[in-house]
């Protein structure tokens, strides 16, 4: 069997976090009460080793992740693709949110409607990872990503993890 060598960098920083309000909607249609988490994001990136002995400079990846988490920070995140959740923006800058018998109203700038069917840690890790891959390709086209693992931790010790592999 041919030996295979692989390299990756892993980023786990106190500041790679975002605070957000959400509620999960369960398969039976019931939903959690609106509540918040201080989410933390962990990234492991695998790519070819450059001739300088780097996968990707840590100074390049950290600001990208920080930018992504900053976009979700201090927002109420909503699943824009859930079939029953209704989100309407009023002319006065207030967003009305309806889910079954529930009704909420919030300032539009506090609300972030995401292209997800549920705001689970698994879905959030998928969204952040895909956005990270897009931005990496746009800004560092020379970095050939072979694998990416991105985890979103909802509470200590509980993470939703997305895995991407280029060969799959």
End-to-end distance, in Å?
A: 20 Å
Measured by DSSP, the beta-strand proportion falls in 35-45%
Please provide the ordered H/E string of secondary-structure elements.
EEEHEEEEEHEE
| Spatial extent as radius of gyration | 18 Å
Tell me about the biggest sheet? 7 strands, mixed
SS elements, strand count:
10
Percent helix range: 10-25%
What structural class should be given to the helix and strand makeup?
alpha+beta
Number of alpha- plus pi-helical segments: 2
Global morphology: elongated
Low-confidence stretches: none
Mean pLDDT across every amino acid position: 94
Furnish the topology, listing elements before pairings:
Elements: E1 8-11, E2 17-22, E3 35-47, H1 58-72, E4 75-79, E5 86-89, E6 94-99, E7 102-107, E8 111-114, H2 121-139, E9 145-155, E10 158-165
Structure summary:
The protein has 168 residues and is an alpha+beta fold. It contains two helices and ten strands, in the order βββαβββββαββ.
Question: Can you describe this structure?
Answer:
- The structure is a single chain.
- This protein has 168 residues and is of the alpha+beta class.
- 20% of the residues lie in helices and 40% in strands.
- The protein is built from 2 helices and 10 strands.
- Strand 9 and strand 10 (158-165) form a beta hairpin.
- The protein starts with 7 loop residues before the first strand and ends with a strand.
What characteristics describe this protein?
elongated, 168 residues, alpha+beta, 20% helix, 10 strands, three-stranded antiparallel β-sheet
């Amino acid at each position: 069997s041919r030996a295979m060598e692989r390299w990756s960098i892993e980023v786990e920083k106190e500041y790679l976090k975002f605070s957000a309000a959400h509620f999960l909607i369960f398969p039976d249609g019931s939903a959690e009460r609106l509540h918040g988490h201080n989410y933390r994001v962990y990234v492991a990136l695998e790519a070819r080793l450059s001739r300088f002995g780097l996968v990707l400079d840590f100074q390049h990846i950290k600001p990208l992740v920080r930018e992504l988490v900053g976009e979700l920070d201090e927002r109420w995140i909503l699943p824009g693709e859930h079939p029953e959740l209704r989100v309407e923006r009023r002319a006065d800058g207030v967003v009305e949110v309806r889910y079954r018998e529930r009704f909420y109203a919030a300032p539009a700038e506090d609300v972030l409607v995401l292209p997800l069917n549920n705001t689970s840690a698994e879905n959030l890790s998928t969204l952040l990872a895909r956005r990270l891959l897009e931005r990496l390709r746009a800004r560092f086209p020379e970095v050939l990503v072979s694998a990416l693992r991105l985890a979103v931790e909802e509470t200590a010790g509980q993470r939703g993890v997305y895995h991407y592999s280029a060969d799959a």
